Amino acid sequence: MADIKLSAHNLNLYFGTKHILKNIDIDFSKNKVTSLIGPSGCGKSTLLRCFNRMHDLTPDAKIEGILKLDDLDIYKKKYSVTELRKRIGMVFQKPNPLPKSIYENMSYALKLHDFPKNELPHLIESALKESYLWEEVKEELKKPAVKLSGGQQQRLCIARTVVLRPEVILMDEPCSALDPISTRKIEDLILSLKRNYTIVIVTHNMQQAQRISDDVAFMYLGELIEFDTYENIFKNAKKELTKNYVSGHFG
Amino acid sequence: MPSVSWNFISKLPTEGMTKGGILPAITGTVLLTFITTIFAVPFGIACAIYLNEYARPSVLTNIIRASIRNLSGIPSIIYGLFGLALFVQALRLGTSVLSAGLTLGLLSLPYIITTTEEALKRIPTVMREATLALGATQFETIRDVVLPKALPGILTGVILTLSRAAGETAPILFTGVAFYINGLATSFNQEFMALPYHLYMLSTQHQSIGQVRPLAYGTAVVLIILVFIMNCIAFYIRFKQRTQD
Ligand SMILES: Nc1ncnc2c1ncn2[C@@H]1O[C@H](COP(=O)(O)OP(=O)(O)OP(=O)(O)O)[C@@H](O)[C@H]1O
Ligand SMILES: [Mg+2]
Asked: How many whole angstroms separate alpha carbon A16 and alpha carbon A62?
């Protein structure tokens, strides 16, 4: 396997005594889109959130195993979690713009990470262009971000992640709150982003998984059942469980 | 009502309280509330932030929370006695507007902590995760997202609490209030006049109660108006927040 960007080895996660992720081994390739699929509650979001350490603030979460970004141990004590999250961005299910203007949404993270002030407008413009939002908002950057439509808000959330030039973008059902047209726009955006970023996306929509993924991982009850290219998963899955799921027989 | 005039609220009392105004009682109450605010608001908000954002849920934090709730059920006269023992005597602040303000601050703290915590709880996790995922620290997240979003709720709680504190008599009884002060309160270590106590004295303790009755009614009206204004501000903040969401 060439060029593995992000990986988990022997990953086990517990919430209190509940064993949620069981012995997960997974490698995400560089500049590819990998979809995580599986029935509700199987641990897709939980797995995704391990990679940018979003479980750090959950008191009873216990994580075992080795997670790596290139050669970096993600849970290494000395490595700063804020630096990690600059390199691994995340987009959530429900658009969650900050209660500030569009421009401030974009500049917020840049300021946190001490980007030079005079570069901000340029960085923001190019990230908004890259996220296909620039034409729609360039006249009204001062407008509160919550006034945008749901689809625009989600593209803004992607743009404010992209503006930091992360290496990996994690997306947890980014289209589930959106109409088909906005969904289409975001899918196009994801496809264009993969040239520069490694993308891991959770989705419940099989058509979407086929439209955008290079690789697909199927999870069931906390285990990784099958991981392969999307052709193999959707056309010749090796496991019965996977076949049933992708053909819509359960879940 | 005829007793409430401009003179009534802008003049000093004269002739053994039977004439003149209640200005010192008004400024006394304002000064008192000011001290209460300075002490209780920052401290109460900080406690709530700690409890809700930083402290990991444990038996200990649950005990702390339960104790805080219980504290808000203690009769205010007990706070008065406690303030007398702690501020007036142990800390040697004397019977003064400072001691009384701190005592009222103690009384207000549990309410401020509880209402602030409620306001913080209402901020959804996805809001916090937005900035955390961008690489903000927990402190930056609280400062930039959580507090601004929770502010209207916090302010509402604070103002209602303070307006209650401003009308309290028992906690200031032993700690600094006086029936009559010659002139306006000018420093923190002086005794002071306050509206609720003034009202109490005029309506039950004065030697010519019949004669000062209009003044007592006037004082009551002024006190109610003050509290009413504060409640209106709280209501306005809540209303504005609701129309924003
Ligand atoms: N903070 C938590 N504490 C305890 N249990 C949790 C916590 N978060 C998630 N779980 C449990 O972990 C399991 C996996 O949840 P997760 O959110 O990862 O599922 P999912 O695959 O993303 O489902 P969906 O498709 O519905 O989003 C569920 O059984 C859930 O109840
Ligand atoms: Mg999920």
From this structure: 7
- Whether A68 lines ligand 1, by a CB cut-off of 6 Å, is no
In whole angstroms, give the CA distance from residue A49 to residue A59: 15
> In the prediction, which pLDDT does A61 show?
93
| CATH class for the domain made up of B26-194 | mainly alpha
Is the pLDDT at B2 greater than 60? The verdict is no
Ligand 1 pocket test, pick from A17, A44, A46, A90 with the greatest ligand atom count within 8 Å of Cβ, gives A46
Q: Which atom of ligand 1 is nearest to the CA of A222?
A: 14
Per domain, the residue ranges of chain A are 4-96+169-246
Show residues of chain B in contact with A160, CB under 8 Å.
Answer: 134
pLDDT tens for each residue of A67-88: 999 999 999 888 999 999 999 9
ipTM comes to 0.90
Q: Residue A101 pLDDT > 90, yes or no?
A: yes
pLDDT digits (tens, 9 = 90+) for B84-132: 999 999 998 888 899 999 999 999 999 999 999 999 999 998 899 999 9
Nearest to A82 among B57, B129, B137 (CB): B137
Q: Which residues contact B114 (CB under 8 A, 6 or more apart)?
A: B48, B68, B69, B72, B157
Q: Is A160 on the interface with B (CB under 8 A)?
A: yes
Closest residue to atom 6 of ligand 1, CA basis = A15
> For the domain A4-96+169-246, what is the CATH code?
3.40.50.300
- CA A191 to mean position of chain CA atoms: 13
